[in-house]
Design a protein that fits this description.
Chain lengths: 346, 510
């Protein structure tokens, strides 16, 4: 019974259901094969392909916790990819590891600056987050096009390709990057007091200010983190296609990221957040997308399918539906049962 | 003032009669076979400490929660309320402390919300304004029904909420803490409306923490304690001291005044000094707070007492003037800087500017300390747990469960959590704005004793309250505010509530 009350139980249930559906419709879904010390299989693909969304969603979680939202993550991905590929393209030795590392560093730095710009608008100038980040959401792809000179820059670079295609210890490098991001963000938020202070600012900004919390810095930092993570996601994405496509890179990823955060049980109203929930949310969305492709749903109607599943998951998670379900089951249990009334806490 | 012109209601059948009301929450009895009745044309007060079962009884009466056992009779007929709408149909309406109206809509829309008069399917605006205007006029409220509700004071909004409640057929009106954010004049206006309704034969259930008001307006009092009925009494037959005893279930000896030296042998060392502090709401003000001294700020709502408290604690930026701590100037307008220097502030708005309701008691207690250390230097878990446990113990915060979200605690305990948050900083000066608002009598006394204890240990306290009794009880010095200015500073030992009232309520001669 207690397990059923855990915040994450429904998100995990949704993910497990998806995996079961997949396994029934194609028994090879769960099989993982080892070739030349590298793992292959549908699950491994999901882990690899979910990396960009994972990075973006982690940043989004922290921003949402501060009562904000970051719509510019997709555009930052496009800028980041454009910067990295332009640096590599300009180099006479694109296969040089040093060149690639410089390209990554410059792209990350630019993304960080873009995140800081968002943070400046929100935390210092007090512009509503949705408007503040909309600026960059619209302008960012233009900036990316300016950087690439209006073309889709393509490159050939072994080390750069390794980011999305390579394997380390038998696992896709991209997956390891997303694991590293999860660990780093979780350590920073939960091993320091930053997570608690972020939640305090998100739940009650004025009370936090009066308690002496440096809320401006905390909010600003959240947008910087989101920008940086989106930038790394942009590097992963451009490495996957080895091209800087300013129009397609990270298109609509902000919506998937917000969805992943909400599926993970973090409220859009800000405050308490769950990084574990976001991780589950990301895997759910990625599995769902893979399922849609596999089940042969025509691409044109796949958003409808996606939407239907999302509605179901969100409904199941909502407290109102849950208490309605509880009422239905209570009627069937004999009277006098030691059932705890959900209203008793109020 | 009381029920001299009312018919003796006990001889008539009650409008509402609840017998044997029992409600269980998770194995504990929130209500244990409680009887409660209200007659037409009476104002009946429901008294008890927090947790006594008042809210549960009201929730049962208004259909928000069914009774596990017991019967509700309306006009002698058994009624079953599965949902609030059932109770509304039976003529029971309630107005709560937090006004649940829509400030951006017009007064008329609020009064008739959900029952707008229609013509050809569209809302008939002129008729709506007429009807709402009639309801308001019936209560003697003279405001434009087309004006936005949010443009009126909280008091008027409260009256509009009552107008909304009685705009349909109502035989019982429940008023839950209706006066907690009103000043004296506004309370008088509310009471005029209550008497008007009483004359129309409406039965009124009045819940308030202010004993004065209960004694002024109520005909009878039902006292609950720990979910059980203590008894029903006629107001004029129940002495205040007896009422408090019945509510607390213990002697009222805790209500003794703080012992104060009659003559201050030597003047105390000044800790905090305001020189000409002024803002939009406050004329230039000089005050001095000594070491180990309680400075009470007395005044009506809008007298500038909150403005002064916020300036003294350094959270607001003044228009003019300066604040000195130990004769060194404090830069104002930055709570972070002020807390570093040892000046801390507790807001009068506990929910919106105090607690972080979804976070745990532990997180709330350590928030300010952690904020001061910065995000990168977290308190070690063992140290944090020990700190939290010691504050829960010291201030007797209940329930003793640091992991609970603070939002589920009672008002008094939330206030103690806030106090713990500030005291954990070991401040030199603590400014408490209405720390006892909306909390029960027992917790009030505890908090007053706490404040005295802090001062005895050398902390300087600024104590703001709209209840003059408690200002007199705890303060060494009292600064009296009127119309945005300190008009007098008097030693606490030399004033009574009556002399204070005379100064506070005096019309401005300027």
């Amino acid at each position: 019974m207690k397990l059923l009350r855990h915040r994450l139980v429904w998100a995990v249930a949704a993910l497990v259901t998806l995996i079961v559906v997949n396994t029934i419709s194609r028994p090879t879904f769960l099989s993982i094969t080892l070739q030349d010390g590298e793992l292959y299989g549908s699950l491994i693909d999901i882990l690899r392909n979910s990396a960009p969304l994972m990075l973006v969603a982690l940043g989004m979680t922290v921003v949402i916790a501060t009562r904000g939202i970051d719509l510019s993550v997709g555009a930052i991905m496009a800028v980041s990819g454009a910067v990295a590929l332009t640096v590599i393209e300009a180099s006479p030795t694109p296969d040089n590891l040093g060149v690639v590392l410089v390209a990554i560093a410059v792209a990350a730095l630019v993304s960080l600056v873009l995140g800081a710009w968002n943070g400046l608008l929100v935390a210092v100038l007090g512009i509503q987050p949705i408007i503040a980040t909309l600026v960059l959401m619209l302008a960012g792809r233009g900036i990316a096009l300016l950087i690439t000179g209006g073309f889709i820059t393509t490159i050939n670079s072994e080390p750069y390709q390794f980011i999305s295609q390579g394997y380390v210890l038998g696992l896709p490098f991209a997956f390891l990057v997303s694991i590293a991001a999860i660990v780093v963000v979780a350590l920073i938020e939960r091993r320091t007091a930053l997570g608690m202070l972020t939640e305090a600012v998100g739940i009650n900004p004025e009370a936090s200010r009066l308690a002496g919390v440096r809320s401006r810095g905390i909010v600003w930092g959240a947008y910087i983190a989101s920008g940086l993570l989106a930038g790394i996601a942009g590097i992963l994405y451009s490495s996957n296609i080895m091209a800087a496509d300013a129009n397609a890179a990270g298109l609509y990823i902000e919506l998937d990221a917000i969805l992943a955060v909400v599926l993970g049980g973090t409220s859009l109203a800000g405050g308490k957040f769950s990084l574990a929930g976001t991780v589950v949310g990301v895997f759910t969305i990625q599995t769902l997308k893979s399922t849609i492709t596999f089940l042969g749903v025509p691409p044109a109607v796949s958003p409808v399918f996606l939407a239907a599943v999302v509605v179901i998951v969100v409904l199941v998670q909502s407290p109102r539906t849950r208490s309605a379900l509880a009422r239905l089951t209570r009627r069937r249990t004999p009277a006098g049962g030691a059932r705890i009334d959900p209203e008793a806490a109020s | 003032m009381t029920s001299d012109d009312a018919v003796d209601p006990v001889t008539e059948a009650p409008v509402v009669e609840i017998t044997g009301a029992t409600v269980r929450f998770a194995g504990t009895l929130a209500l244990d076979h409680v009887d409660f009745r209200v007659h037409a044309g009476e104002v009946h007060s429901l008294m008890g400490e927090n947790g006594a079962g008042k809210s549960t009884l009201i929730r049962a009466l208004t259909g928000a929660r069914p009774l596990d056992e017991g019967v509700i009779r309306i006009h002698g007929k058994v009624a079953r309320f599965a949902r609030p709408r059932d109770a509304q149909r039976a003529g029971i309406a309630a107005v709560y402390q937090e006004i649940d109206l829509l400030p951006n809509l017009s007064v008329a829309e609020n009064v008739l919300l959900g029952r707008e008069p229609r013509r050809f399917g569209a809302i008939d605006w002129p008729r709506m304004r007429r009807e709402a205007g009639a309801v308001l006029a019936g209560l003697g409220i003279d405001i434009d029904p087309a004006s936005a509700l949010g443009s009126h004071s909280v008091a008027v909004q409260q009256l509009v909420a009552i107008a909304r409640a009685i705009s349909r057929e109502v035989s019982v009106l429940v008023l839950d803490e209706p006066t907690s954010s009103l000043d004296l004049e506004e309370v008088a206006e509310l009471f005029r409306v209550i008497r008007e309704l009483k004359d129309r034969g409406v039965a009124i259930v009045f819940i308030s923490h202010f004993l004065d008001q209960v004694y002024e307006i109520c005909d009878r009092i039902t006292v609950l304690r720990n979910g059980s009925l203590v008894g029903e009494f006629r107001t004029e037959e129940l002495l205040r001291i007896d009422l408090v005893q019945k509510m607390l279930g213990r002697g009222a000896e805790q209500l003794v005044e703080r012992p104060r030296p009659e003559v201050d042998a030597e003047p105390r060392r000044a800790v905090l000094r305001a020189r000409g502090l002024a803002s939009r709401r406050l004329r230039p003000t000089d005050v001095v707070i000594g070491e180990g001294e309680v400075l009470g700020l007395a005044g009506l709502l809008g007298s500038g007492r909150t403005a002064l408290a916020r300036l003294l604690s350094g959270v607001d930026r003044p228009a003019h003037g300066r604040l000195e701590l130990d004769a060194r100037e404090v830069r104002l307008g930055d709570p972070r800087r002020a807390t570093r220097l040892g000046v801390v502030y507790s807001s009068e708005n506990r929910r919106s500017e105090g607690i972080i309701d979804q976070l745990s008691v532990a997180a709330n207690i350590t928030l300010a300390l952690q904020a001061q250390r910065g995000a990168w230097r977290p308190l070690r878990k063992a140290r944090r747990d020990e700190l939290v446990a010691s504050w829960i113990e010291a201030l007797d915060i209940r329930p003793r469960r640091p992991e609970l979200p603070v939002g589920v605690l009672s008002g008094g305990n939330q206030q103690k959590v806030l106090l713990a948050r500030l005291l954990a900083l070991a401040p030199r000066v603590i400014v408490l704005d209405e720390p006892t608002r909306g909390i029960d009598v027992g917790a009030k006394v505890e908090l007053q004793n706490l404040v005295s204890g802090l001062a005895d240990n050398g902390m300087s306290v600024v104590f703001v309250s709209g209840e003059l009794e408690e200002v007199v009880r705890v303060s060494d010095q009292i600064a009296i505010l009127r119309d945005g200015a300190v008009v007098d500073v008097v030693p606490g030992s030399q004033v009574t509530v009556d002399t204070l009232l005379a100064v506070v309520g005096q019309p401005d001669e300027g």
